[in-house]
Amino acid sequence: MTQLCDPAQRRHWLGVLAQASPVELEQHLARRALPALHWLRRPETGLMMVRGRAGGTGAQFNLGEVSVTRCAVQDDAGRLGVGYVRGRVVRHAELVALFDLLLQDDIQRADLLPALIEPLAARQRAARATAGAQAAATRVEFFTLARGD
User: Fold this and answer.
1) What is the spatial distance between Cα 134 and Cα 52, in angstroms, rounded to a whole number?
2) Other C-beta atoms within 10 Å of 93: how many?
3) Residues with Cβ < 8 Å from 135, sequence gap 6 or more?
4) Which of 31, 39, 62, 71 is deepest in the core (most CB within 10 A)?
């Protein structure tokens, strides 16, 4: 019997899938048998307002808009898979929704977490660490000397 998955865990895999390469997701999907599916919401692209904070802690302000593609799929067991991705890549949103649906099944989740999600998450963390190290290398420390007048 399939139980409800942990919301924090689901949030994690949705984030990892949304940042993954559609090509890599496509390769993993080719090895899977999909259940009977019903598209509740075919992929559609729209705009979403992105908000920011001055200095990371100040008052919120509207930074700008970003393209987002979303879709939703359901299987015969009633599980609902959703996909939201930045940009206009329709197939990427479909893949995220399909994997979200598969990951809600206990058997599929036991296989997909170590085979797909954990390696993708590790590569994404490594890429962020590399980018952070490159940015830190260009950091400039400014200081002021007080004149003794």
Assistant:
1) 23
2) 29
3) none
4) 71
> End-to-end distance of the chain based on CA atoms, in angstroms?
80
CA distance 10 to 16: 10
138 is a domain residue: no
State the burial class of residue 132 (Cβ atoms within 10 Å of its Cβ: 0-12, 13-18, 19+): exposed
3-state secondary structure of 112: helix
Q: Which domain holds residue 67?
A: 7-129
Number of compact structural domains in the chain: 1
Q: What is the pTM of this model?
A: 0.84
Encode pLDDT of 121-136 as tens digits: 999 999 999 888 888 8
Amino acid at 65: E
